[in-house]
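Lab manual, section 2.4: Encoding a predicted structure.

Procedure: take the sequence of the chain (164 residues), apply the prediction step described in section 2.3, and record the output as C-alpha cells. A sample record is shown.
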Amino acid sequence: MRIGLYPGTFDPITLGHIDIIRRASALVDKLVIGVAINRDKGPLFDLEERVAMIEAECASLSDETGTEIVAHPFENLLIHCARDVGAQIIVRGLRAVADFEYEFQMVGMNRALDSSIETVFLMAEARHQAIASKLVKEIARLDGDVSKFVTPQVNDELRKRLSK
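Recorded output:
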C-alpha cells in the first residue's frame, strides 16, 4: 500500500489545500493529512477544530477518489511523522518561486534524515495558487469575502470565530 503524507497547519483548510489533496489522492492508496501542532504560529482554530474541518471536507473526497484520507495531528519532526504513519511520500503544495526555495531546503534536510522517503511537489490549479490560509484569515478578519477561497462550511466557521 502506497501511503502519502500531506503536512500543514490547515488553519483553515482552503480550496487550494483541497485541490492538492485531490491531486495527491491519485498517487497513493492512503493519504494522511498531517495537521501540525505549531504553537509558534498561534492558530485561529485549535487542533481539534482543524482536524474536524479536514475530516468534514475530505469525507466526500475520499469516497470520490477511492483513496483513504485521514487526518493525523503531529508535533514532531516531519520525517518522524512520515515514519510514524508509514508514508513513502511527502506531498507538498507549491504556490510560487518563494515556496520552492523554502521547500528545496526542506527536501534536502529531510533526505539527509531519511533518504527512503520521497517528496513530491504538486501545484494547485491556477485559480487556487494564490490562496494562503494566512491571507484568508486576514481578509476574513477585515470583513472581506473569502467565499472564493474556502468551502461554505469553512467560511461559516471563520465567520463564527471572528464574530466572537
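Check your result against the sample. The mean pLDDT is 93.
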